[in-house]
Design goal:
Number of domains: 1
Radius of gyration: 18 Å
Shape: globular
CATH superfamily: Alpha/Beta hydrolase fold, catalytic domain
Number of helices: 12
Helix content: 25-40%
CATH topology: Rossmann fold
Number of strands: 8
Length: about 290
């Protein structure tokens, strides 16, 4: 392995917030920005950093409130996806990134789409991995959330399933999976996530972002307009056993985008835990083909 392909672990101050990030690859290659989802961190990309460094400068930050980045209280930082995207914009400026490919997973999708829609010219391509952007992906398991977003009353909040606990954190990895796949997931993933979420005030942070996800869903029409107008090349990687986003979601992307390659795996929401090698190979080809047509 080349020295530049070995992941480095760094932190940088962005407006008083310490942003932890993992980086691999030489700085002269196209940047691939990896955005994680809930409740994880850049740790979920640990197995793909080195192989992706062969074709890109890979940058995987922990969003504020996640992983090893700072987690200021709700009163000290505005936990909306628009504001997270603003922090990521300034993070990219600090580390010298202009244009980039962006990996969109779960909560990383609204952050990445804010970046893309503010500056479409900066985005070289989308890698979508179980990231929702269409109503088709939100099945009946989201009915309670829709009721709460429409009327955020205490009564509707009480009807929401409990997920901001250890069992809910583990369920992000294992829910919906057959036993043959459950045994492939290392338990340290959800233990690390829960240890980070257990920081004082962090559960309030996560609920604030859940509330703001309703505003993201309300923007799905704008996202479709972005797809149709700008036609970013897209690689879609999907775990078909995802308990949160329905498989029908992928047809929304296929409807809107002309240049799309789709791979559906026998996996769950956290695809990279079981299919890191396959995913890295597909992403490498996608990035290399667009970087050297």
């Amino acid at each position: 392995m080349r020295a530049s392909a070995k992941p480095r672990h760094r932190s940088v101050d962005v407006d008083g917030i310490e942003i932890f990030y993992r980086e691999a690859g030489p700085p002269d290659l196209p940047c691939l920005l990896l955005l994680h989802g809930f409740p994880s961190s850049s740790h979920c990309f640990r197995r793909v950093l080195a192989p992706l460094a062969e074709v890109s400068r890979v940058v995987a930050p922990d969003l504020p409130g996640f992983g090893f980045s700072s987690a200021p209280g709700v009163g000290d930082y505005e936990y909306t996806f628009a504001n997270l995207a603003g922090t990521m914009e300034r993070f990219l400026e600090r580390i010298g990134v202009g244009r980039f490919f962006v990996y969109l997973h779960d909560f990383g999708a609204p952050v990445g789409y804010h970046l893309a829609m503010r500056r479409p010219d900066r985005v070289l391509g989308l890698v979508v991995q179980n990231g929702n952007a269409h109503d088709e992906g939100l099945g009946e398991q989201w009915d309670g959330a829709r009721d709460y977003w429409a009327d955020p009353s205490e009564e509707n909040r009480a009807k929401l399933p409990e997920w901001l606990d250890f069992e809910g954190t583990r369920g992000q990895y294992l829910d919906g999976l057959p036993e043959r796949l459950r045994v492939l997931h290392p338990p340290e993933t959800w233990h690390l996530d829960w240890e980070r979420m257990s920081r004082p005030g962090d559960l309030d942070v996560q609920f604030q972002l859940f509330r703001d996800y309703g505003a993201y869903v309300a923007r799905f029409g704008d996202l479709a307009g972005y797809h149709r107008a700008h036609q970013p090349p897209c690689l879609l990687l999907w775990g078909r056993h995802d308990a949160f986003f329905d498989l029908a979601e992928i047809m929304g992307y296929a409807r809107d985008l002309d240049r799309i390659e789709m791979h559906v795996y026998d996996a769950g929401h956290y695809l990279l835990e079981t299919h890191a090698d396959e995913s890295a190979a597909a992403i490498k080809t996608f990035v290399a083909d667009l970087s050297h047509p």
